[in-house]
C-alpha cells in the first residue's frame, strides 16, 4: 500500500524542486536547426496531450481512454527514437550517466507494466464467473438460477479484492520520481535537447502510470500531481489534462464508487439489480420481461468490458516489448551513429518477441 495522502496535499513530482532547471534552453547556445528539432518534438507532445482531453464526463475513466493514453505514451517513446536519429547523436557520444538513467527508469516502467498485466489477468478471471452466470441464466431450471447466483457472488467477491502487485506500484512510482533527476549536460547542445525531450516523456509516463494505478487499485491516493514549469511549451496542455483527469477520479471515488472504470461500474450496477431477482433459485419458468432485459444488459456490458480489457492489455504488452527491446538495443549497440537509430527511447526497429 502507498503511504496515506492528505487529499489537500497531493504527492509532489519534485519534492525538492525541479532538477531539470539545469537543462533549460536558456544559455545553451542552441543553433536554429537544433532548436527547431526540439520545438517540433514538444509541439507533437503538446498535440498528443491535448488529444487525451475528455470529450465528456462519461469518458472518465473508460478503458477506451486508457487505451488511447497508452497509445499516446508509446508514440512519445517512439518520437524520442526519431529525435535521436535526427540529432545524429552517436552512441559513442552518450554519457554513461545518460545510459544508466534510462536503464534505471525503463526498468521501473517494465515493473509497472508487469503489475498492470497481472491486473488484466485478474479481471479476466473474474469475468469467467460472469460468463458462467450468463450461461446458466439462459436455462429454465431453478437449479441453473442457483448456479448463476453463486457465480455472481463469486464475481462480486473477487472483483472487490486487492491485487498486491498493483498495491506495490505506488512504491515503484515513488522510486521512479526520485530517479528522474537527470545528470547535468555540459558542452553538448544536442545532449541538452535529448535530456529536455526525455523529461517531457518521463512526465507523461509518470502521469499515465499513476492514473492507471489509481484506477486499478480503487484509490485516489495513488494519484500523483506533477508540477511542471511553464518554461516548457507543452506544460499548459499537460496541466489542463492532469487537472481534469485527477479531479474526475477523485470526485468519482468521493461519491462512493468502488471503481472509476466506467465499464466495470456498469457491470457492477447490473449485477446488483439482477441478484434479488434470482436469489434463492426463483422459478425460471416465470421469467419476467424485466428480468430478461436485465440479463441481456449484463451480457452486453460483460462483452464491452472484456473487449476493452483485451485492447488495453494488448496496448500495455506492445509498450512493454518496445521498452524492453530499446534496453537490449542500447546495451548491445556498437558505437556508431547508424546503431543509435535502433536504440532510442522506445525504438521499435527490429522488434524482438520476448517471452
TrEMBL record:
<dbReference type="Pfam" id="PF05633">
    <property type="entry name" value="ROH1-like"/>
</dbReference>
<dbReference type="InterPro" id="IPR008511">
    <property type="entry name" value="ROH1-like"/>
</dbReference>
<dbReference type="GO" id="GO:0016020">
    <property type="term" value="C:membrane"/>
</dbReference>
<comment type="similarity">
    <text>Belongs to the ROH1 family.</text>
</comment>
<keyword id="KW-0812">Transmembrane</keyword>
<keyword id="KW-0472">Membrane</keyword>
<keyword id="KW-1133">Transmembrane helix</keyword>
<protein>
    <recommendedName>
        <fullName>Protein BPS1</fullName>
    </recommendedName>
</protein>
Amino acid at each position: 500500500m502507498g503511504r496515506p495522502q492528505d487529499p489537500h496535499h497531493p504527492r509532489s513530482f519534485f519534492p525538492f524542486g525541479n532538477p531539470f532547471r539545469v537543462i533549460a534552453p536558456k544559455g545553451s547556445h542552441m543553433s536554429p536547426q537544433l532548436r527547431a528539432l526540439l520545438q517540433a518534438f514538444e509541439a507533437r507532445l503538446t498535440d498528443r496531450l491535448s488529444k487525451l482531453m475528455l470529450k465528456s464526463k462519461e469518458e472518465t475513466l473508460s478503458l477506451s481512454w486508457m487505451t488511447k493514453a497508452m497509445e499516446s505514451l508509446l508514440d512519445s517513446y517512439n518520437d524520442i527514437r526519431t529525435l535521436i536519429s535526427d540529432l545524429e547523436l552517436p552512441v559513442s557520444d552518450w554519457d554513461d550517466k545518460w545510459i544508466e538513467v534510462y536503464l534505471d527508469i525503463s526498468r521501473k516502467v517494465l515493473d509497472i507494466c508487469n503489475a498492470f498485466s497481472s491486473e488484466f489477468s485478474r479481471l479476466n478471471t473474474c469475468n469467467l464467473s460472469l460468463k458462467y452466470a450468463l450461461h446458466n441464466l439462459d436455462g429454465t431450471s431453478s437449479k441453473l438460477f442457483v448456479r448463476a447466483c453463486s457465480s455472481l457472488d463469486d464475481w462480486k467477491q473477487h472483483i472487490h479484492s486487492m491485487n498486491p502487485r498493483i498495491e506495490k506500484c505506488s512504491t515503484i512510482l515513488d522510486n521512479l520520481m526520485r530517479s528522474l533527476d537527470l545528470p547535468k549536460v555540459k558542452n553538448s547542445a544536442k545532449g541538452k535537447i535529448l535530456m529536455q525531450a526525455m523529461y517531457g516523456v518521463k512526465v507523461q509516463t509518470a502521469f499515465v502510470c499513476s492514473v492507471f494505478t489509481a484506477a486499478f487499485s480503487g484509490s485516489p491516493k495513488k494519484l500523483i500531481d506533477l508540477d511542471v514549469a511553464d518554461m516548457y511549451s507543452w506544460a499548459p496542455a499537460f496541466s489542463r489534462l492532469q487537472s481534469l483527469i485527477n479531479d474526475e477520479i477523485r470526485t468519482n471515488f468521493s461519491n462512493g464508487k468502488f471503481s472509476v472504470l466506467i465499464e466495470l461500474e456498469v457491470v457492477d450496477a447490473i449485477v446488483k439489480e439482477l441478484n434479488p431477482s434470482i436469489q434463492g433459485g426463483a422459478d425460471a419458468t416465470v421469467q419476467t420481461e424485466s428480468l430478461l432485459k436485465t440479463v441481456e444488459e449484463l451480457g452486453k456490458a460483460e462483452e464491452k468490458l472484456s473487449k476493452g480489457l483485451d485492447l488495453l492489455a494488448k496496448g500495455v504488452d506492445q509498450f512493454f516489448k518496445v521498452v524492453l527491446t530499446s534496453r537490449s538495443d542500447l546495451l548491445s549497440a556498437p558505437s556508431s551513429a547508424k546503431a543509435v537509430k535502433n536504440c532510442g527511447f522506445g525504438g521499435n526497429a527490429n522488434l524482438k518477441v520476448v517471452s
